[in-house]
Amino acid sequence: MAYNAGFPMGYQPYYPQYQYQAPQVQTPQPQQMGGRVWVSGEAGAKAYILAPNSSAELWDSEQQTIYLKSADASGIPSMKILDYTIRSEAPANPAQGVKAPDPINVSREDLNALQSQIDALKDEVRACRQTIAESEVYHEQSDLRRRHESRKSTADESDADASES
What we know:
The chain has 165 residues and is of the alpha+beta class.
């Protein structure tokens, strides 16, 4: 019988291959219920990973908070935190800071007087436009007269110079 390194021929010794595997740490995955993503506190929202150019609404399962998390084109995340309250009825007083406009009561006579003032101002504007237009025509005519007189005097001078020679 032939031997191969102390083993019978045809026998392959088993040498186990040991490979080191790092322990895998599992991060708790957020629960998705009814289309909402639930996380555990702000730490869970910060740990939630987003793809670049995406966003998510993350609902806190511990507090009445919604985290609006988004990532820009380079994958850098940003987060807005919203706290909400649950009510059973509409609030007794409307939101503060929002004031309803004061009602304005005007008589028909006041409106007619105001309309008369507006009409008078329109008439004044029309009169001013007419005056400006007439003034422009006057100035154009004056300029034409001056040019004509200037040409006439230049022509008279040239005729006088020609007769003296």
